[in-house]
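Researcher: Structure prediction, please.
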Amino acid sequence: MEAKQEQKAKTDLSRFDSSWFDPGNKVRWVLWHITSSLFFINPLFTLTKPKVFLLRMFGAKVGNDTVIKPRIVIKFPWHLEIGDNVWLGESVWIENQGRVRIGDNCCLSQGAMLLTGNHNYKKETFDLIVQPITLEDGVWIGAYAVVCPGVTCRSHSVLSVKAVASTDLESYSIYQGNPATMVRKREMEPDPNP
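Model: Predicted structure follows.
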């Protein structure tokens, strides 16, 4: 007698429905993609001040003295808040269906990714999940590191090269690996010539 095989649920992407997600005004969204291609993703356009101006025009809140390198991808500037003295390195990717807040004096190194969107792999319909990301003041996201949806990187935390933060990072702590784990405290020396 042949054993009855258990029927397992299967992913069915034809049933995927993200109609609840509102990317904003469609005309603004199309205009942003054109602007992004010409001035942000374009490796030949290196000037920061026009990029800051354009981000503000599209609804982003951007502080003073921000540095924005070429090849940057920002999906929805109207969901972005950047503090003062922030550095966005070359090829940074901000997939911000949800709110992304970057505090003062933060550095996102080359290829770093902030991902506010994910999918519910437990559902056949592979539902979209959106959660905000917060980088508090003084955070450093290393080259090719990834910050996952819903994560808060507390004040002056460091996510090392190629590490993946899927849970919150404690303040003044250094994290490595996938998943990122704390390896030591971040000890900082005061500037002798303030």
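Model: The domain at 46-181 is CATH 2.160.10.10 (UDP N-Acetylglucosamine Acyltransferase; domain 1).
Researcher: Thanks, that helps.
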